[in-house]
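Annex B. Sample input.
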Amino acid sequence: MFEKRLSELAAKHLTRRILPLHSGVGPVVEIAGRQILLLASNDYLGLAMHPEVIQSAIEATQRFGTGAGAARLISGSLPPHQELESALARFKGGGHQLDVMTIDEIEAIRARSRAKSSTWPRRCRGSRSGSSGSRSSSSTDGRARSARG
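Annex B, continued. Sample output.
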């Protein structure tokens, strides 16, 4: 059944396929021997092929390897990540706690949303037997609150 439907889509040229690039990324790429103007790139600033960025990536790879190994909370944080976070925090006007600022901002939005609405979503109401799998407890005003927030 699946193969039949897939064949129907392919006959109508509606299947997706990955096209191999024969060049680096940039505004113009080479696909199947042709130069193509690429209008769907995530390389907004055109830095992916910049010589200084490439050299910095080579040096970082030689020093730190090709991956973090695991989540930073488990295996630790690499200096380049900490340096970038600090630079972004300074640029944004905060301290080193960019994540905390973001969480605080989200919590403020959630608090405003709760104050505006006295109706909580069904998945947060009731007892622990809810279908969402999250634990809940009743607040002093009788509304249930999810353990996830």
